[in-house]
TrEMBL record, chain A:
Heterodimer of HisH and HisF. Pathway: Amino-acid biosynthesis; L-histidine biosynthesis; L-histidine from 5-phospho-alpha-D-ribose 1-diphosphate: step 5/9. The active site is at residues 11, 130. Its EC number is 4.3.2.10. Its main location: cytoplasm. Keywords: Amino-acid biosynthesis, Cytoplasm, Histidine biosynthesis, Lyase. It comes from Flavobacterium terrigena. It is found in: Cytoplasm. Belongs to the HisA/HisF family. IGPS catalyzes the conversion of PRFAR and glutamine to IGP, AICAR and glutamate. The HisF subunit catalyzes the cyclization activity that produces IGP and AICAR from PRFAR using the ammonia provided by the HisH subunit. GO terms for cellular component: cytoplasm. CDD domains: HisF (cd04731). This is Imidazole glycerol phosphate synthase subunit HisF. Gene3D superfamilies: Aldolase class I.
From TrEMBL, chain B:
This is Imidazole glycerol phosphate synthase subunit HisH. GO terms for molecular function: glutaminase activity; imidazoleglycerol-phosphate synthase activity; lyase activity. One of its GO terms (cellular component) is cytoplasm. The gene is hisH. The active site is at 77 (nucleophile), 175, 177. Its EC number is 4.3.2.10, 3.5.1.2. It comes from Flavobacterium terrigena. Its main location: cytoplasm. InterPro entries: Class_I_gatase-like, GATASE, Imidazole-glycPsynth_HisH. Keywords: Amino-acid biosynthesis, Cytoplasm, Glutamine amidotransferase, Histidine biosynthesis, Hydrolase, Lyase, Transferase.
Amino acid sequence: MLTKRIIPCLDIKNGRTVKGVNFVNLIDAGNPVELAKKYSETGADELVFLDISATEERRSTLINLVREVAETINIPFTVGGGINSVEDVEILLKNGADKVSINSSAVKNPDLINKLAQKFGSQCIVVAIDAKRIDGIWKVHLVGGKQATDINLFDWVVEVANRGAGEILFTSMENDGTKDGFANEALNIISKLVNIPIIASGGAGNKQDFADAFSIGNADAALAASVFHFGEIEIPELKQFLKKQNIKVRI
Amino acid sequence: MKIVIIDYGAGNIQSIQFAIKRLGFEAILSNNPIEIQQADKVIFPGVGEASSAMKMLIESGLDKIIPTLKQPVLGICLGMQLMCKHSEEGNTNGLGIFDVNVVKFSNAVKVPQMGWNTIFNLKSKLFENIKENEFMYLVHSFYVPNTDLAIANTNYEVEYASALQKDNFYGVQFHPEKSGKWGEKILENFLNL
C-alpha cells in the first residue's frame, strides 16, 4: 500500500534556515543541510525548502544549497519560492531538486504550468495554493497569503490539475500558525475534485491533527514546520501514532 | 570499477551520481557508445515522457547499443520502462529487452502514484539483504503488469512488476537513489554484481 507522507518544511533565507529551530545535538541548526540530514534520518518522507530571500544573490545561493542538499540526503525534496520561468526550474532540477513548487507565478501566468509539465513531466511540478475564506467563499491568495484574488479555490484546483500539475500543496491561511488542525473540510473537497496527490499544509499542532488530515481531509501528505523544528512532535512517534490508527505510514 | 550513467538528456540524473558517490564510487555521465560499452556497470536513468525519451535515444543511436550490452545494466524508473517492448505513454515502442508492455494506471487510483510503497516477492541478487516489504520511493503514472520477468512486486491498483530482470539487464520502477538507506543498498548490490 502507498503510504501517507510526512513532510517537514524548511524556510530558507540567504542560504540559512529561518524561524527558530530547537534541535538538540545539532551543531548548527541554522544550516539547512544539517537539518535536512537530521530529518531524512529520523523518518521524514520528503522535504520542502521554501526560499524567502529577496536579495540579488538569492538565485546562486539557492542553487548551491540545492546541490549540497542533493549530495547529502537520500530522500526526495521539493524547492519553492520565487520560481517564475522554465529556466528557473531547469537549473534547480539540474542541480538535484526532485520537484519544484510554483505559487504566485502560476496564478499570474497559468500557461507556465503547461509549459513546465510538458518540458519536465508533471511528476516534478507541484502547484502551491494559499487560500482563505472571504464572505464564506474560499479564495486564492498571493504573496504568502497577503494579497487576495478573485479566484475561487476549487476552480483553481481543477484548472491546475488540468494544466498538468503533478501535485497540489494546499495551505489554508486560516489555519496556518493556529495549531488548531488542518482545513480538513476544504481538503476533502479538493481531494475529490482532482485525481492527483494533495499535500495538506497549515495548522498542525498535535499528532491527532495529522491523523485527521489523512482520515477526514483525505490528504496524501501533510506538511508542517514549527511543530517539527521545535521538537514538539517527533516524526518517529508521530508515525507510530498514525499506525495505531490504521493509517499507512513508512516506518 | 568504471560506472557509466547514460546521459541522453532525460531529467534529473545528478541524484544518481550523488548516490553512487555516497557509496564511495565515481560514476561518469556519458552518451558515448564506446565509453558505455567499456563500462563495468551501466545505469540507464530516465525521468520524463516515454516517446520523447525514446526519440532522444534513437537520435543518438543508443537504441541500438543498449540492447547489445553484456555487462550489468540497471534501468531506473522511465529507464526500466524504455527497456520494455512498448509503452502506452506516447504510444511508443521501447528497446524490447523485456518482452512486456507498459500500461497506464486507471483513474480508480490517484495518478501519478507518488510516495513510498513496499516491494515484495524479491527474487534477485539485486535485493540481497533487503527484507520483504521494504519501502521504496516511486513516482509514476505507467506500470508493467506482473510478468515472469518480475523480481519484485508492488501493489497499487493491481499487483504489478516493480522490478524486472533478464540476463544482465535489470530494471527498477522505484528510485533507489531516493529511497533512503535501503535504496542505496540496492544500488550497492547492483555495483557488486
